[in-house]
Design a protein that fits this description.
It contains three helices and no strands. It has one domain. It is mainly α.
């Protein structure tokens, strides 16, 4: 997972939804 995705979840969910799911999981 790119760290940039953590700061830009909107980009992550559109380009890399799997990383967005991981981001939400670790930050739940």
């Amino acid at each position: 997972m790119a760290y940039s995705d953590a700061y830009n979840p909107a980009i992550s969910i559109t380009e890399r939804p799997q990383d967005f799911v991981i981001f939400m999981t670790i930050n739940s």
